[in-house]
């Protein structure tokens, strides 16, 4: 390739990289509920729309909704109790709580904007206070805008990778760095949600020590061959337990 062509490629690549960083700086905003400065490129209304649009597909992936309306009503009641007794009620998000029919996968998760899910496999192992701990954790993911932050970070690294690829064929290296960054941030999201989940439990009148029991259930479910913490987006349950104890002391003084 001619020297002039290389210069043009490098110039275009640098321009794309510069655009990525400028856009990232412009997207910085402080979360009014957590106080953390985040890279966010969408509004709460857009988060809500994404969550509502994605909810049916996510439910379908887990066998649909659990058919027993009494159990679904319990999930709704506990979730709304947490929302109504915390600053979650002051947020613009629309909280809905879904009990999934999946009786094999122990899991709970939240979509942007307030759609929260728990599988029957996990639900069936919990008492009400433990259920509150799980749902409080998922509410915290919504308030923390963790999915929106991951989307913005992913967009940043995709743009950066494109610029590096155009400029110097370094896209794969930059992309790997981006993935590692997202992995670390994911662990921080889980710890932040654990802490806020404890606070929501206390405010709603639940025993926060039941959150520790939830961690023990998750640890037992993973078995002796669970993935080491450094290879997972979730911190090891043992480390989460220590952080939960700190949060209990912080918010309840005991």
TrEMBL record:
Obligatory cofactor(s): Zn(2+)
Keyword Hydrolase: yes
Stretches assigned to the Peptidase M48 domain: 72-247
Gene3D superfamilies hit by this protein: Metalloproteases ('zincins'), catalytic domain (3.30.2010.10)
Cytoplasm listed as a keyword: no
Record note on cofactor: Binds 1 zinc ion per subunit.
Keywords: Hydrolase, Metal-binding, Metalloprotease, Protease, Zinc
A Pfam family annotated for this UniProt entry: Peptidase_M48
Family as reported in the entry's similarity comment: Belongs to the peptidase M48 family.
Protein name: M48 family peptidase
Organism from which the protein derives: Flagellimonas algicola
Lineage start: Bacteria, Pseudomonadati, Bacteroidota, Flavobacteriia, Flavobacteriales
